[in-house]
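Thread: quick sanity check before group meeting

JM: Hey all, I'm pulling together slides for Thursday and realized we never actually wrote out the predicted structure for the chain we discussed last week. Dropping the sequence here so it's in one place. If anyone has concerns about the input, flag it before I start.
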Amino acid sequence: MSNELEAFIEYITVIKALSKKSVEAYKSDLSTLEEKIQKPLIELDSKILLNTLSQYKNKRTLNRKLSSVNAFFDFCYKNQFSDEKTKLKFAKIPKLLPKFLSYTEIQNSLKLIDRSSWIGLRDYALILFLYASGARISECLALRREDIEGDWLHIRHAKGEKERIVPIAHVAKEAIDIYLNELSKENEFVWCNYKGDKLSRISAFKITQKYLGVSPHILRHSYATSLITGGADLRVVQELLGHASLLTTQIYTHVQKQDLKETVEVCHPMTKENI
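JM (edit): ok, ran it. Output follows.
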């Protein structure tokens, strides 16, 4: 690893205080590039770098690598390791509408859950919770009993170490209470496996996959989509989701536009008859 790269890693670890996973991702991206090219990144021009990165056919993966490289070059320029401010252009990715489930689809799937055991009660409550709160799966699994305060949810382990408080539907809160009352083993965490330990991310994925055929994150999309199509203000949805930027939340406006278009097509007489 070059001296400049070591300095960058120290900077994002100590000064920027990025999470361990973020630091490891930057380190992996940049050190792998240096190993492939067998030269310090600071000595390379844009053409060689882009040629090396062109092996990544997945544009999202490519852009993550480019983001790491740009962050490194920006650091080098600001610290006078480089005289030129290099910034590589990102690959264009077509905007895709977020996949989501309707309330009816979720309701129908919930009916399939056998709630005669605490495992079934947990699965039922977990799916309701994810749809009712819009929480990320990491936030959900980090939830402690003390974080549920009446009909309010205190998310203490949010992305970027931020905290937020969001309301949770009474039906979801009731399902959680019933599940916890049947839970034989005490645990500070709300979601537990059959051993009484904290539920893993893989287990949570298997639960939503089993009943809904989707990942837990789709329930977060479904939550946001339900709010937007129901008329919620975009900034309110941003706060509820814990998005740092409104731009991230704006993807759901495409869903709203599609919903409006379909409403006009169904209701307006000019869409049914020729003049």
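AS: nice. Strands lie at 148-149, 152-155, 164-167. The longest strand covers residues 152-155.
JM: adding both to the slides.
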